[in-house]
Amino acid sequence: MGCRQHNCHNFYILAACEAVRHLLGQSVSLLPTNLNTNSTHFRLSHKILDEAFALSQAPDSNLYLAISQKSVRLGVVDLKRNKFVVLEDYELLTVFSAQQVAEQLRLIAKSSAILKHRGWHGIRVLISNQNFTLVPETLFEPAHQADYLRLHSELDPQQDEVLAYRHADLEAVNIFSVPAVILQAVEEITHHKPVLYLHQTSALIRSLLHQTGRSRERRLYLFVEQHYVTITVISKSGLEFCNIFQYLGPEDFIYFVIFVMQEQKMDPEAETITVLGDITHDSALFSMLQKYVRHIRFGKKPADVAYSYKFDDIFEHRYFELYSIHLCD
Question: Domains in the chain and their CATH numbers?
Answer without folding.
Answer: 11-23+33-213+300-329 (3.30.420.250), 214-299 (3.30.420.260)
